[in-house]
């Protein structure tokens, strides 16, 4: 029987399943951060339960950790409390923590350091109390976000109750044109099929454009799968995957590596395997994307104009768009090109890796950011920050007038002062443009690092292809 990549991993991890009930799914890797874990650990304490597999549990500080100097006090008192609790919970339960003290040289955003350390591997089931756990699917793993009660379940049992989702083949044909990036692919898919298009499915990304991508680009695509409504996003492992993982700290070594790779090569979907749905996008026709509304599905080519709610037949969608445009202070038919902006944010688990920073630095080198725009560049991890500094990227950003920060989630979730003021516009490389996501009353245009840098230089929304 031909099976998809998802089906192979799912079948290998079902511990038991009663008819009509969710499956008991074994979890290979549990990633933990400071925001969604305190209640889960408290639940274990009240029940007198220890973490079942601390060796398969890894923690980091990312959401609330300050990206200004780590020598200064933490401004956000809630963040300070969560960080202290994470440090204590990790120590009490023998969990490795990449934080401000222990493991600080490897601290970073949870979905950045998992792959970086080699913890993320093909065929694994990976969960985290964070919806963008889909990122890890770029390696041919099944990664998905879970809630606080589920975090407690995994900590105590290393298993999770799950109903089997359907599968969707997301075919990305063609070749990306100059100035068009992996971020534009995933924004294009979400704009085409909507934020609910993938509900009930696990996406498997296939096609020529995907195969040509490096691992960091694949992670960007999988990262935002959840924004399209899907449970997870996956890409079959190949030589690109294995080359990325070879030699990393937690990757198999020696004969174990050879055995692992041989097993990983069996994971790609069998020829003739069937999917429950097929989604398609032609990369040849794709232009740089930008969002105009308050969910990631409200996106368009940067050269297009804001759609008119009056042209939408569905009443609920028409009202949603009207509400979004009112919040964003935009009018139907308006062009975003030339729209003045206040802030540019380059970072998040979507676009804070070395390839993102190199791409941004290449475009901004020798130029200055507009004196009307604040630009924050936030690397995804301590190793990325160090590598960028070895390459002199930080000097390029600083010379251009941008801020070079410490690693963390930063303005993606608006903590520790990294946030927009009410009414400000930002071009952001993060993954969500919800109302207030980057600061109460803040207005977010999601885009690629290239679009973000081009807009930083000119002070208005700009097509990077005009600056190349």
Concise summary:
Helices cover 32% and strands 17% of the residues.
Structural features:
468 residues; alpha/beta; Aconitase, domain 3; Aconitase, Domain 2; 3 domains; five-stranded parallel β-sheet; 15 helices; 19 strands; globular
Your description of this structure?
With 468 residues, the chain is an alpha/beta fold. The chain folds into three domains: 158 residues, 2-Layer Sandwich (Aconitase, domain 3), CATH 3.30.499.10; 120 residues, Aconitase, Domain 2, CATH 3.40.1060.10; 178 residues, 2-Layer Sandwich (Aconitase, domain 3). The protein has 15 helices and 19 strands. The strands form five sheets. Strands 5-4-3-6-7 form a five-stranded parallel sheet, with helices on one face. Strands 17-16-15-18-19 form a five-stranded parallel sheet, covered by helices on one side. Helix 2 links the parallel strand 3 and strand 4. The radius of gyration is 21 Å and the shape is globular.
Strand order of the largest sheet: 5-4-3-6-7
Total number of beta strands: 19
Number of domains: 3
Contiguous helical run count: 15
Q: Unreliable segments (pLDDT under 50, ≥5 consecutive)?
A: none
CATH structural class of the largest domain:
Alpha Beta
CATH superfamily of the largest domain: Aconitase, domain 3
CATH topology grouping of the largest domain? Aconitase, domain 3
How does CATH name the architecture of the largest domain?
Answer: 2-Layer Sandwich
Overall morphology: globular
Helix percent band: 25-40%
Q: Mean pLDDT, nearest integer?
A: 97
Separation of termini? 50 Å
* Structural class label: alpha/beta
- Rg from Cα: 21 Å
How can the largest sheet be summarized? Answer: 5 strands, parallel
What share of residues are in beta strands? 15-25%
